[in-house]
Amino acid sequence: MKRTYPNFPAMSFSSTPARLTLLALLSATSIYCFYRSRRLKLLKLSVNANLIPQSNGHPDVSLKRGKLFFVTQTGTSKTLAHQLHGLLTSSGIPFALVDVKSYEPEDLAKESLVLIIASTWEDGKPPADAKFFANWLAESADDFRVGSLLLSECRFAVFGVGSGAYGDSYNAVARDFSRRFRGLGGNEILPIGEGDVDGGELDSAFEEWSRKIVKALKGSGLENGVSAEQSFNDGIGDEFYSDEDEEEEEDDLESVVVDLEDIAGKAPSKKSGGAVTQTNGKLSNGPKEMVTPVIRANLEKQGYKILGSHSGVKICRWTKSQLRGRGGCYKHSFYGIESHRCMEATPSLACANKCVFCWRHHTNPVGKSWQWKMDDALEIVNSALDQHRKMIKQMKGVPGVTQERLAEGLSPRHCALSLVGEPIMYPEINTLVDELHKRRISTFLVTNAQFPDKIKMLKPITQLYVSVDAATKESLKAVDRPLFGDFWERFTDSLTALRDKHQRTVYRLTLVKGWNTEELDAYFELFSLGQPDFVEIKGVTYCGSSATSKLTMENVPWHADVKAFSEAIALKSEGEYEVACEHAHSCCVLLAKTDRFKVNGQWFTWIDYEKFHDLVASGKSFDSTDYMAATPSWAVYGADEGGFDPDQARYRKERNHRPKP
């Protein structure tokens, strides 16, 4: 039987409208299929990423992917966070690593698991990048409208990185975070961990805390109904260490600038096999050593020769310059030292300040008192001279270095105790000074005006400096960032203590544009406290920006600025002080007391060093006028030479900087 079909009207695809209709239909179908496929794929990835696998291989839907935050100024917390992140990942506990500066704190309410590594910065406050996060947390915790259940679904733990030398503000940020999280209903899975960068136990404290974190998370925070933190003991597990950690640590050791609070995770590799005679900066059977392996490595990278456990020596660029006959430093112009015969050293690398213009970028320790192993003064002096001579010998064959000057350089006649740190902190400073004077080596000691009692008990030295970095309490706190709470009282007492010293005394002012250059009247008021013989006024030296200092070339005054400031303050003294000398190359000017050092119109700012040593050896009382010497005309303020010794050969570097685009 023949099958018949109804007749339909023929559809023609030759027309343009029909073709466009078909194309639109196919396109819409393709887009829809792609969208469905992509959506399902993303949903699958999201589910997998937010589930933490358990030991039985099945995911625990109650534990979402956590956040590991770091709060950092110099990189310490970031380094530790990377270390913990690697450990968590290798333990099968995925976390997202987050810098709080890029995080929206409003999203905290959505988090179920948070770990925080937080550094404390100035005055117990968080670093600048974390202020918004910290303020939001504080405001939310104090706002009754928010309530105490905002973070009730969030488990958290906090580890703090700070300096115990700061007393009550030690790890204040981490402690505040812990308190605020609890105040908003958060469940703290472990007590706050704390690491002291000055105590030498940061690495071990963080490793122990990290192991407890891993155990708590692997146990889902509870073990047989008991809080994980209650079940920990001191002997948990072996120390963790990964190849990734080692590579990060070795890379960090190569960094140019490392702040004291930036030494975490940068100890010599545990796999390097290097012999270390101390553990975390402590001797096995005595007081800790001031210079940890990390601090030693970074100071040596900057050219320092570390002596014993707390001293250092370094060859000055001006020592090299005068060895080559290319001019001496400002002390040569102002006081007649022979720069090529000057040794720059310190018996204490530690300091009680963290000044914004620190040349050493805070790679040295800080402390309020001597708490370290103490080396013998004689050994320090002998070691310093030995290392200094070795560095001088390396100048042999350098263009311009004559055999005569090299021989003189190998016999130092001056010691600048101003290298780094606070030399007056060293308990045997008087013994050390005696050892130098026995060798007829003059002493120029700089103190940061935080130890007035030490100034009072100091034996006669050639010249005693006090750094006067600011003239008001507020600006001194901002510039010097002192550890002591009573820093201003210590500062003014230190200046007052100078008045009773019979040898030459100096106020050293470092001008920083935008910080302390507008305080001329306040500076002058300080003159009456110490009545110094001299006032050195110097423009700040730009040493490059770092995480610890935001100074730029905009903060560096011109020599004309320093001269104008010096002339103005001399004028305010109404003749008590006058501008005596200058060293244009160092951007430095010297004020001197006219009634002592200007005789018949001639300045006597130079020192008769042989006379000084004879006076010290005599044991008799003497004062600063007993060993003064005439200042040469080329060093006097306003001379055409600008403080440059005409017996030296002026050398000007060629500047071939590329023009800015």
TrEMBL record:
Signal peptide: none annotated. It comes from Linum trigynum. This is tRNA 4-demethylwyosine synthase (AdoMet-dependent). Belongs to the TYW1 family. Pathway: tRNA modification; wybutosine-tRNA(Phe) biosynthesis. It comes from the Eukaryota. The keyword Translocase does not apply. Probable component of the wybutosine biosynthesis pathway. Wybutosine is a hyper modified guanosine with a tricyclic base found at the 3'-position adjacent to the anticodon of eukaryotic phenylalanine tRNA. Catalyzes the condensation of N-methylguanine with 2 carbon atoms from pyruvate to form the tricyclic 4-demethylwyosine, an intermediate in wybutosine biosynthesis. Its cofactor is [4Fe-4S] cluster. Its EC number is 4.1.3.44. It catalyses: N(1)-methylguanosine(37) in tRNA(Phe) + pyruvate + S-adenosyl-L-methionine = 4-demethylwyosine(37) in tRNA(Phe) + 5'-deoxyadenosine + L-methionine + CO2 + H2O. The keyword Iron applies. Residues 652-661 have a biased composition (Basic residues). Residues 335-578 form the Radical SAM core domain. Residues 66-214 form the Flavodoxin-like domain. Keywords: 4Fe-4S, Iron, Iron-sulfur, Lyase, Metal-binding, Nucleotide-binding, S-adenosyl-L-methionine, tRNA processing. Residues 267-288, 638-661 are annotated as: Disordered. GO terms for biological process: wybutosine biosynthetic process. One of its GO terms (molecular function) is FMN binding. InterPro entries: Aldolase_TIM (IPR013785), Flavdoxin-like (IPR001094), Flavodoxin/NO_synth (IPR008254), Flavoprotein-like_sf (IPR029039), rSAM (IPR007197), rSAM_sf (IPR058240), tRNA_wybutosine-synth (IPR013917), tRNA_wybutosine-synthase (IPR034556).
